[in-house]
Amino acid sequence: xxxxxxxxxxxxxxxxxxxxxxxxxxxxxxxxxxxxxxxxxxxxxxxxxxxxxxxxxxxxxxxxxxxxxxxxxxxxxxxxxxxxxxxxxxxxxxxxxxxxxxxxxxxxxxxxxxxxxxxxxxxxxxxxxxxxxxxxxxxxxxxxxxxxxxxxxxxxxxxxxxxxxxxxxxxxxxxxxxxxxxxxxxxxxxxxxxxxxxxxxxxxxxxxxxxxxxxxxxxxxxxxxxxxxxxxxxxxxxxxxxxxxxxxxxxxxxxxxxxxxxxxxxxxxxxxxxxxxxxxxxxxxxxxxxxxxxxxxxxxxxxxxxxxxxxxxxxxxxxxxxxxxxxxxxxxxxxxxxxxxxxxxxxxxxxxxxxxxxxxxxxxxxxxxxxxxxxxxxxxxxxxxxxxxxxxxxxxxxxxxxxxxxxxxxxxxxxxxxxxxxx
Length: 423
What we know:
By secondary structure, this protein is an alpha/beta fold. It has two domains: about 5-225 and about 405-415, Aldehyde Dehydrogenase, Chain A, domain 1, CATH 3.40.605.10; about 230-380, Aldehyde Dehydrogenase, Chain A, domain 2. Helices cover about 40% and strands about 20% of the residues. The strands form four sheets. It has a six-stranded parallel sheet with strand order 9-10-8-7-11-12, with helices on both faces. Strands 5-4-3-6 form a four-stranded parallel sheet, with helices on both faces. Strands 1-2-15 form a three-stranded antiparallel sheet, with no helix packed on it. The protein is globular and about 75 Å long.
């Protein structure tokens, strides 16, 4: 290896070489590797939780927001869930080598496409230890090498997780450079990573809007962006109200810091006078702070329910907390217009008993995941049967929604003939 390369470029060159080794593994060998990783997570749980406790203490002292601290936090239950997800990925069918289609052509060729690994995948993320394992697992399962750049707030936890991944790689006689981590938290290295196009095939930024904009603007590598979730649920006039309240509670309460938590509830005017007080009585005791839009405020006031107003910019905000906007809209068209104006194309839902309205919503809302009578909290690789995801993509090329195994592959055109020549 050229010693004149910078440390990050040497990392990229090593990852490219390691991708050849993991790309040559059989499906059974890759699954065995992931089962070893899951075993290691459980065997070294005590050390992992101790490292995470140090990160949590530093995060609290450094004033990290509550939502980020929640993402960072590990306990025995969360760690067991990460191990279970790793085993779930291991048990999934191997997409590499899958034949996508095939046909005989008039020119004498038989043409088909076969799935192959991308090569090297880089990810930039913050505060989520599970992302380290999810991306490593999904990349290795698809025969890709990975370069990971986590945030400084989770440095100790990520280092402990990387040791477990490396232990599993060593046990299977694979290069440790198949999964590498950028340990230096300096921002300059992010820019250098964005320019590593001769070694890295795909970049996944999992962070705030500023990081996403930086990567879209500066990267020389194809970027999968997403994960910013200003998610909406529209309660249509025919919806069953008690069942709708349960869905709304789940979408806001189950994990407020998640990108698929609902941030704005839209209620059709025909049922708003009846439904809004029920919504308040259901969510307020659970700690939810409802922010009333201009059309909703008079209806809440008529019931003597004082609520803070929706301020400028609130409809475009990913609260990631127990705050939630509530607005009244005239009809489905008004709801769709609100979502088009303020949504991020992540996850949006309609609650209704009118399947014609549901069909219109499905066809016209431009989101990666669209729900009818279900919580937005299902937008997740595990919930979608993908094992996990490297990101939830809100763009439209290559992959959209939770990006699992197939999103980490491309295809190769293969043509066979009988010494065919073109006329």
